[in-house]
Sequence to fold (334 residues):
Amino acid sequence: MTALGSQAFYDATLPAEFVLPETVTEIGIYAFAEVDLPAGFEIPPLVTEIADGTFSQATFPSSFSIPDSITTIGYNAFFRTNIALAALPSSLTSIGDSAFSECLQLTGALVIPATVTSIGERVFESSDGITGLTLSDGVAGLEDWAFSGMTGLETLHIEGDLDIPAYGFMNCSALTTLDISAGAEVSFGIRAFSGIAATSLDFSGVNVSSVGSKAFYSAPNLVSIDFGDSNGGVSMTVENQDFVSSSSLASITFPAELSSIGNTIFANTSDPDLVFYSATPPSTTVADLFTDFPAGGTIYVPNDSLASYQAASRWDDYVDNYDGFDPATDPLVP
Fold:
């Protein structure tokens, strides 16, 4: 035997002595869905793909692990199972949509290996026991919503260059620590971190090329965002932002390479400080640059650029909010 067909053992009762022959190279979709797998169950070493739904809602023995031969994990492959992983195989290249959704026995910190170059939507949604996630240097190909809904996730480490897609970590409501390796070039998609619990976000030393619309929307605990004084020579664009839900927001610092900025809504915030290291006012096409910016808020710009900001179209609406600083001697004001 070399292949199992689709739904081969779907909802079947397997004998205690059931073993898959080592000659098996292919297991069809939903082949073991809704099956109680016997003690000692293993995937044969010649199998390289866990197809869509293969083990959806199955029950695994505690000894089960995903072998190093596996390169692809399909859609819903382990959906709503009791799988408890110590690690993902280093051979893995692709994880499909909802592959590990609602896997309540997944706990602690999980590392996505550097070999993974394709990650589908909601891969760990509602797998609430995962508290830490590391995206190794080399990970790429995240789809929209890739890690959304990981409501137990507290700590995220990103070790290399990465484009975080739209809604990438949306509704990760326990996420308080976001650590990105210095020198990494990243981008944040629309609502990438909407709904997180962080109080401060420090991206200094990280090269952020773009920040999508409402990237940090509905982050109620957010106090500060620091993009640092320099972006490593990488031009940065910031689309429309909305901090209506971040009533404690106190400061945002933008680097010298900020080239354009969209509308930012500050309703319900209390006198935030904005720090711009750009020598010239970043371009903008919006009519209302800082909607509901409080009268007591301060916009810090380099001393030598104060007059150009106060005179620039759309920036001139905030003449009374400006204050100058010297980036060389008085950095990161306030």
Observations:
- The mean pLDDT is 96.
- Residues 12 and 35 are 6 Å apart (CA to CA).
- The longest strand covers residues 130-135.
- Residues 306-311 form the longest helix (6 residues).
